[in-house]
Structure formats: C-alpha cells, structure tokens
Amino acid sequence: MTFNQLYEHILAKKSFLCVGLDTDINLIPEFFKDTNHPLFNFNKGIIDATAPYAVAYKPNSAFYEAFGAQGWNELEMTVKYIKENYPDIFVILDAKRCDIGNTAMMYARAFFETLNFDAVTLSPYMGKDSVMPFLNHDNKWAIILAATSNESANDFEFSGEEPLYLQVMKKSMQWGSIDNTMFVVGATRPQMFESIRKICPNHFFLVPGVGAQGGSLQEVVKYGMNSHCGLLINSSRGIIYAERGNDFAEAAGKAAHALAEEMAAYLV
Amino acid sequence: MTFNQLYEHILAKKSFLCVGLDTDINLIPEFFKDTNHPLFNFNKGIIDATAPYAVAYKPNSAFYEAFGAQGWNELEMTVKYIKENYPDIFVILDAKRCDIGNTAMMYARAFFETLNFDAVTLSPYMGKDSVMPFLNHDNKWAIILAATSNESANDFEFSGEEPLYLQVMKKSMQWGSIDNTMFVVGATRPQMFESIRKICPNHFFLVPGVGAQGGSLQEVVKYGMNSHCGLLINSSRGIIYAERGNDFAEAAGKAAHALAEEMAAYLV
C-alpha cells in the first residue's frame, strides 16, 4: 500500500484507527475454544464488526506463536481474511524483529511474501543492516520502534544526552522515505510529539498507548497530527476485549465506532 | 538447564561450540526439497553428525518463519528431536524478541512451554519489562543482545559517551543472575572482551561472528574466557554449509570436530 492510498483511506473513512489483534486464548469467549481455529474465528468476528471504523489491523505475532504451528496458521488465515474482504485496510504485523542482514531478509520474506502483510514493526538496536532488507519491497513498510509507551522505555530509549529514540529517528529517517518508513511513538508522553515533529514532520507514526495504557487521543492529535494526518492510533484491549461474552463483536464495533467518531472530528 | 549442568557438559565434551541452525531452503541439498519436512530432515542430518562436538544448538526463527506454519512445525520438530536424542544439549532459539510485558509473557510461553527451548535471544531496546517475563521460568535463560557482530552495530550499540551496549550490560545484569542471563557479544572485536569482562566477569556470553564473519576463536578465548569457560561460540554457515552436496552431514561433522579440537586445547 502506498502513502497516498493510506491517506486517502483515512479521509474516506474519517478514521485513523488501527485495531490491535492481540488475541489471547485465555481472554476470548469460551465457545471459541472448542472450535478448530479459535484465534481466527474470534478475529473474524472482531474484524467484521470493526472494519467500518478501522484503517489498519495489527496482529501481534507473540499471541500466535504461543500456539505453535497452529497459531502461525491462524495468523496466516487472519491476514488472508482481511486482504480478501477488506483490501483497502493496511495490515501490520507487530513482530518487533531485529537481526543481521541475511536474517532480516528471511523475515522480510516471511512477512511480506509468505504472509502478505503491508508492514512490520522492527527494533532498531542492531542498526541499519537490520532494517534495510524491509525497505526494498515495493509498497511495503518498516515501522521502527522509537519512543515506546511502556514504563521501562526509560531504561535505554530515553537515556543519553541526546536520547536514544531521537538518535534512532534522525539516523533511520535517512535509510528510507515517508513512503516506506513509520515510527512507533507511544501516546503516554503526548508533549513529546511536539519536539519529535520538529525533526520528523512528514512521517506516519504508529501510536500505541491510547486507552488501557492511559494516553489521551486529544493530546496526541494536538501535538502529533500533520497535514496528511500522520497518525495511526492503535487500540487493542480496549476494543477486542470491550465485552468478554457473546456480545464481544458488537461491543468491539461500538468501541471502535466511538474512537473513530472522535477521530472524525479531528480530521475536519 | 542450570549453569552447572551447562558447565559440566562443556568439561565432559571438551567443547563450547554452539551450532547455528540457520537452515535456508535455498542452500540445503536438492534432494531434501522433495521431502515433506526439508528443513527438519536437513537439521536431523546436521545434528546427528555434530552432536559429539556441540554443547548447544541455535535455530534462528527467521529461517523457519519464512516457511509459514510449515516452517514453524519443522522448528518444533527440530527442538523435539534434540531434546529426545541429546537431552544434555542446550537449545537456544535465536529470536531476538522485544516487546512490552504482557506480550513478552506470551513469547516466553511460546518458546519455553510450547516449544521447550532452554533459552531465547532478546533485543533490550524497550528495557526491563521486555526481559523480566523470561527470567521467571526455572532453568530457562534470557540471552540479551549487547555488542553484536554486524557492521551497523556502530549505529547505536557503540554510540554515546558510555556506549549503549555497556549501559545495557550494566543495567540488565541487575535484572537476573548468572543462572538465567547471558549476553550476545560478537567475535569481531575481540579486544572488547577485556573491558567487558571487567564489568561482567561471571556471565556466559554467546559469541557469534567466528568464521564466516571473520572473528578469531583464539583472540576471543584470550580476552573472554573465565574460570567457568563463560563462552558459547556459535558457528552457523561454516558448519552447516561446509559442503552443499550429498556429504553435507559428514562435512558438517568434520567442521564441528575441527572447532571442538581447538576448543579442547583452550579448556586444559
């Protein structure tokens, strides 16, 4: 998917919502557990209910790997279902991979070719050669961890005279372009977006941490939005586990709708 | 596996060799490609030929994920085969994962419970809460990236007044102990081991970069070995692709034997 296709979809749907499919077998309704594909069947319900309000989905690989080969198979089924039924939706694998060149190339093959994701999240610790193999696939994206929303982001990301996350953004902005690179910037420190936008005005940011983790959508938009929106706001648990019983899909749809309505107001 | 079990196995086998199972479908002998489980069948040949000389195996998850659910299944078959036939061998998943607490917990479940690995490699970018869930499983290990052997390690790991890799080691040494934490330190800068051993005298280091990447075993041992060996030297391509035809297993065995013989001399 291209930058413009993503932006046009945001305008058309009046939403910049990404729904995180952190599908945990222990948190989905009981009746799915007796089916052959519990993670996929749950995802299907969530996807059909939230697709009118979402421009992106983001399965997290850990939740599928915890189920072994079967989980991997259900991840494949999930991305295939989205691509076949909602082809204009951007699909991110939240994998946070990090490896040397020849290995990164294998990951790129796994996620962009075997699985047909549009984008994958990456940890930048090992530097340029761990990212470059993801930047030479047409219309595919690398989403690089910069300033994450977890508490221990302070350990390294925010340490140093020039904080590591700024070093990462400044350097890795040079490796690709706004057409194939995004950054993860957490919602829990919204004022930070103001200084980040000074060095990185045009890139899209994938923003976790709104909702369950306490970040404010209004504040993120105030400091982080740019002329092409520039934000994909992720919500996982607040949507997919909005209701844990039979009405899980309807409740997820309502939660997504509420977020998208707030977003529509900011897009005017 | 405990620290002492690993050390005793090193003394018994007179080797501290880890064989990296970076099994690439495009590099294995042609005749495997027509079998149902090409990656596993190749690994089985390599494992049986090299097990007399190795104390650890290290499959890299990327090479299996590139094959989708089938690859994941062959990864499961590989770790199961090693555990059933060579139960004293330490098995590492080279996964370099990196995620927030609740997700890291899912990865720990995936690798330590679903797959029964002894250890997993982790990227420390997101800090403590991305590592801790791997440290509360009895006799399981987190192997944290510190100073890697790739060229672009210079981008971030070696930058800063106090280089990031030293910050990572100093801080993360406090999260666990020598019984559940190792560090990845590349062989390509062997003198670096001298200063690293001053701050981290007792931990095991997993050392890639000997052989194909140009690191010298002799130099790494000189600066990096401690009273309990403290080193697992990884070789991947130099062993598993020593010969690409029918004699691949015999050639891998010879290459592993040669490295182990050199190691035995250093262990006296």
Explain what this protein looks like in three dimensions:
The structure is a homodimer of 268-residue chains. Chain A is of the alpha/beta class. Chain A has one domain (3-267): Aldolase class I (TIM Barrel), CATH 3.20.20.70. The first copy, chain A, contains ten helices and eight strands. The first copy, chain A, has helices at residues 3-13, 38-50, 61-65, 68-85, 101-114, 164-172, 192-199, 217-224, 237-240, 248-267; strands at residues 17-21, 56-59, 90-97, 119-122, 141-147, 181-185, 204-207, 231-235. The first copy, chain A, has an eight-stranded parallel barrel, surrounded by six helices. In chain A, strand 3, helix 5 (101-114) and strand 4 form a beta-alpha-beta unit. In chain A, 57% of the residues are buried. The model of chain A has no long low-confidence stretch (mean pLDDT 96). The interface between A and B is large, with 58 and 58 residues.
Provide a quick synopsis of the model:
Two copies of one chain form a homodimer. The first copy, chain A, has one domain: Alpha-Beta Barrel (TIM Barrel).
Poorly predicted segments of chain A: none
Q: What structural class results from the helix and strand content of chain A?
A: alpha/beta
Oligomer: homodimer
Give the overall form of chain A: globular
Highest-level CATH class of chain A: Alpha Beta
User: What is the fourth-level CATH superfamily of chain A?
Assistant: Aldolase class I
The largest sheet of chain A has its strands arranged as 1-2-3-4-5-6-7-8
